[in-house]
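Standup notes
- DV: blocked on the single-chain target, sequence here:
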Amino acid sequence: MDIIQVITQELKVEKWQVEAAVKLIDEGNTIPFISRYRKEATGSLNDEQLRALFERLTYLRNLEDKKNQVLKSIEDQGKLTEELKKQILDAQTLVVVEDLYRPYRPKRRTRATIAKEKGLEPLADIILLQMTDKPVEEEARAYVSEEKGVKNVAEALNGAKDIIAERISDEADYRIYIRNLTTKNGSISSTAKNAETQSVYEMYYEFEEPVRKLAGHRILALNRGEKEKFITVKVNAPEEDILRYLNKRVIKKDNPNTTPILKAVVEDSYKRLIGPAIEREIRSDLTDKAEDGAIHVFGKNLEQLLMQPPIAGKVVLGWDPAFRTGCKLAVVDATGKVLDTTVVYPTAPTTEKKIRAAKDTVEGMIEKYGVSLISVGNGTACRESEQVIVDMLKEIPEKKVQYVITNEAGASVYSASKLATEEFPNFDVGQRSAASIARRVQDPLAELVKIDPKSIGVGQYQHDMNQKKLDEAQDATRTAEEAMEKFQETYLEQKRQQQQEAQVAAYQKSMADQQEEVKEHDQRIDQLRRRMSRQRENSKSAREELLQKREGMKTLLAKLADKQRSIQAELGQAERELAKNREDAKAKKKFSGAAPQKENISELQSQIAFIRLKTSATKKKMQALDAALEALEEKTGKQQLLMQKAEEKLTEQKNKALTDDDREETAAPDPGDDDLLATAGYREQSKAVRNALEQARKEEEQASRTYDEARAEMRKSSREEVKKLEKEEKDHASFQKLFTGAASVVGFILLLFTVGAFRRSNG
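- DV (later): unblocked, structure below
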């Protein structure tokens, strides 16, 4: 079996991802570590995929090991055939392998093995062959032997029946069919051991439901009820269908001598051997699936609970509500240190005087310690306490105090634990519970990890679960799970050692995390520098492109100026010749040559006008290029300034984190009740660094957008200028064409006038 290929198909991922994940697992890496720090190696497989991969990998490897063990065992017995080997190798589950191995498994001393020792196996073969013409009793007489312990015919027949019954029960095909049929058509029922006894299991005193439809929570409830001896649970299989199937497979011939015996043996084999085993397997499988479902729910709920966002930076009043024993209060500062505790009696049985005294006490604590948030446990007397708090807060609106209802599940368990006793040796259980309720809103993760997950109350039947699986379910919290384990280990170690040593250990852990953050900062800084370098190169390239275009415009202007001077010179020459011709015409009374000179002058004047238009457009384009170049340089400068500030900020945060590592151990805060202070400070520092990185990223994106806008505006302006010049050239060509036509007409009219004058002068 290609395990990698099987897992690839089941998870619907790439084969190289599975290979990489398997390699990391084999190297001893945990699932949280791989999902968090080796994403690039696994192609970003998430934690759920990795857990499914790990579970399937473990199962398939165990399956392959089991196959090898079974094959070796059967081969050592000399009973391994090619057909059996193929069946074992093709098996997809451990159950099928066990069924195939059952006939060859070394057995404990059973009724069948005792019968075989007495030499009754040939008699069993005779009965199974179903070919004897004699009554079975006569065949059995030959096996009666005092020496072997077979005293009579009945004892010989019973031994042969036991052998046949065990052979039938060991047949793998029979077991697979019966297991599938029972799962499909069977049911699970429960009855009360004493119907008059009251319990929480009364709905299961007369209960029955098909196996395939039974919900996981019902299975767990039935198991617990049976364990507590309130009910009796059994699997109801379709016996008639099963016996009909077994009789059809075992009884090959209608022999009146053997058929009745084989029917009895089939029924005995099923009821005594197969049925109970199948029932145990089905219930075990149902229980495993129910536990997996319950553990999945537990893991999801636990993750959501542990990953609640903290309310940091507030002085919190923890309120543990109660009726008769009074409400326990505890004021906790922003670092988790308990400042004050007391007990008030605003709930029943109470009086107006006690209520007023409770309000005054709470108002005094709010005023003294600057309380801004009241955390009320959701236990007994929660609503009554809430009403008192609401009425009190209406009396002091200027304080702007808020309240929140907090889940106090597990607080009572924690308050009576050894850990709580070590943490608050001078507090009673009520004061410890109030302090825990206050801390839960400040840092839920840090407070909840002190409580056994089974006692948090976020799952079903946690105490009935496989405790190993239940502990493994905490992997669903990913990074939270790592924090939980590390925090628990550190915290317990702190309480075993002196306070100073414990605080140093916590500080070292915090700095290890900070070093990871510093590495990330270095990577971000390198990325920022590379981006700055790319931006500088892009800006340089764009500037060179603009300068090149500007030089081209200068060259074009020079050419236009030269052409203008040349045309002006020709125009001056033409005007001088026109004036001379006019003088000659006046002297000779003729107009010859005047019209062509005027036409030539007009054409030159139109060319000069066009060149002037083109020169003006070119100057405008150069002005636009100069403006774009100036805007580009301005935006590039701003962008580089922003990037430089971002780099300086990142470096400052990194240096601050590194500088914190040089603090003396004696400078650490006293552990005591504020043992989470170092962790809280680190979180604030990390938050500031992340904010700086995010701000730098936003500034970089804004600078990039500004640069792109400048380039787009420049390109748009260039396209508009080109279109304008093209239009002016087209207009000039049309004007020139029109002018040429008009000049031809004028020349023709002058020619006619000259001819007419010549005829009149000769007439």
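- Follow-up: Confidence is low (pLDDT under 50) at residues 475-481, 590-597, 661-683.
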